[in-house]
Amino acid sequence: MNFEINKAVGAGLGALLFTFMLGLFTEALYSQPAMKKPGYDLPGASAEGHGAAEAKAAEPAVPLPVLLAKADPAKGKDDAKPCTACHDFSKGGAAKVGPPLYGVVGRPKASIAGFNYSDGMKAKGGDWSYDELDHFIASPKTDISGTKMAFAGEKDAAKRAAIIAYLRSLSDNPLPLPAAK
Ligand code: HEC
Predict the structure, then answer these.
(1) Ligand 1 in contact with 123 (CB < 6 A)?
(2) pLDDT digits (tens, 9 = 90+) for 84-93
(3) Are 133 and 167 spatial neighbours (Cβ–Cβ below 8 Å)?
(4) Tell me, what CATH number does 71's domain have?
């Protein structure tokens, strides 16, 4: 009887010892070198990756007046090449697919007599401001719904500024540039 108990206790202690040793062993196996800083390293949250993502998200768009101040009209003439498929830029130029653009900065919208503007363009009203030109050239279809201007849009803000600086130069009396705040 006693012998049986001893055997059972012995087995129990043995098992306990075994688990203990196993614990030490696995701990040694999986222990990490001391962490440099507290907390967990989450995937994609390395100092570098995080910084880059943040810089991208937080990079403020350069305001149009600032871009216009350093825009080169001569470069804008180059960037405006795709526009020439549909627009004449010369003084007294005639309508092509689109209305002539000489003097368009500050000109009332949809104001070329005889040009068949879309209803969306006619309904817009007001004179073409620098901001409005920027938005329209960036994405004609989303800016003026129903526009007839079949142009995908110039997505590069600096190129748009150059184009607008060029448009501004197409005038006997160019409007002042907007103040860069
Ligand atoms: C595929 C032909 C086409 C291209 C390319 C094109 N346009 Fe136009 N554009 C038009 C048409 C058509 C209209 C008239 C839109 C309407 O009535 O909705 C127009 C209208 C405009 C107007 C308004 C003019 C006014 O009298 O109110 C501006 C400004 C303008 N375009 C600028 C540009 C610029 C800048 C580019 C190049 C970045 C460009 N367009 C490229 C066809 C084009």
Answers:
(1) no
(2) 999 999 999 9
(3) yes
(4) 1.10.760.10
